[in-house]
């Protein structure tokens, strides 16, 4: 039986169940029951645990269902990297880095909370960077010595962060897009 998400993140942090209990204020027995899938934890409990593990609460939410059927786990994880991949492919043409992940999000947002969360992170990041990208192009036209390096820097940052997060999503790690304005509530 695969480990629950709580167990995976707890081990990544290098904590025992007892240490996590001490840090979070949640009893060791509750942590054991959550990891076994014997209980559905309260959202407040998940928030306390997620805070100690430095992860978002949503990442710990579907641990019991994820353990029941391995086929369910494979299907969403194969869709999640597509959001990042489509954004990367879309960087070749203006606005496609937003349109392609947005269309996929509209189709898949109700299937899995992880898909919804990562799609919103991708969209927030690419919307923010695209909004910054257009003024840098205008600046490049009027004052090339500043506009050109700024445009290249923004574009390279978009490509680099999308590639990093594509690999993180494939390896089931937490995705982080810095400097994102929240257009879609996460």
From TrEMBL:
<dbReference type="GO" id="GO:0005829">
    <property type="term" value="C:cytosol"/>
</dbReference>
<keyword id="KW-0812">Transmembrane</keyword>
<protein>
    <submittedName>
        <fullName>Putative Tic20 family protein</fullName>
    </submittedName>
</protein>
<dbReference type="InterPro" id="IPR050807">
    <property type="entry name" value="TransReg_Diox_bact_type"/>
</dbReference>
<dbReference type="GO" id="GO:0003700">
    <property type="term" value="F:DNA-binding transcription factor activity"/>
</dbReference>
<feature type="domain" description="HTH cro/C1-type">
    <location>
        <begin position="6"/>
        <end position="60"/>
    </location>
</feature>
<dbReference type="InterPro" id="IPR001387">
    <property type="entry name" value="Cro/C1-type_HTH"/>
</dbReference>
<feature type="transmembrane region" description="Helical">
    <location>
        <begin position="150"/>
        <end position="167"/>
    </location>
</feature>
<dbReference type="Pfam" id="PF09685">
    <property type="entry name" value="MamF_MmsF"/>
</dbReference>
<feature type="transmembrane region" description="Helical">
    <location>
        <begin position="127"/>
        <end position="144"/>
    </location>
</feature>
<dbReference type="Pfam" id="PF01381">
    <property type="entry name" value="HTH_3"/>
</dbReference>
<feature type="transmembrane region" description="Helical">
    <location>
        <begin position="82"/>
        <end position="107"/>
    </location>
</feature>
<keyword id="KW-0238">DNA-binding</keyword>
<keyword id="KW-0472">Membrane</keyword>
<dbReference type="GO" id="GO:0003677">
    <property type="term" value="F:DNA binding"/>
</dbReference>
<dbReference type="InterPro" id="IPR010982">
    <property type="entry name" value="Lambda_DNA-bd_dom_sf"/>
</dbReference>
<keyword id="KW-1133">Transmembrane helix</keyword>
<dbReference type="InterPro" id="IPR019109">
    <property type="entry name" value="MamF_MmsF"/>
</dbReference>
């Amino acid at each position: 039986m695969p480990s629950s998400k709580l167990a995976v993140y707890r081990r990544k942090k290098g904590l025992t169940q007892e240490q996590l209990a001490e840090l979070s204020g949640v009893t060791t027995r509750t942590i054991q029951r959550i990891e076994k899938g014997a209980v559905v934890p309260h959202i407040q409990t998940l928030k306390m645990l997620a805070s100690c593990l430095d992860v978002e609460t949503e990442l710990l939410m579907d641990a019991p269902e994820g353990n029941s059927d391995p086929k369910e786990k494979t299907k969403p994880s194969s869709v999640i990297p597509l959001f990042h991949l489509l954004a990367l492919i879309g960087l070749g043409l203006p606005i496609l880095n937003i349109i392609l992940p947005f269309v996929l999000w509209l189709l898949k947002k109700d299937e899995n909370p992880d898909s919804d969360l990562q799609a919103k992170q991708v969209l927030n990041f690419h919307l923010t960077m695209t909004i910054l990208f257009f003024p840098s192009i205008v600046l490049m036209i009027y004052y090339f010595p500043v506009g050109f390096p700024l445009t290249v820097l923004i574009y390279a940052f978009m490509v680099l962060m999308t590639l990093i997060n594509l690999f993180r999503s494939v390896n089931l790690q937490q995705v982080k897009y810095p400097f994102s304005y929240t257009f879609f509530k996460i």
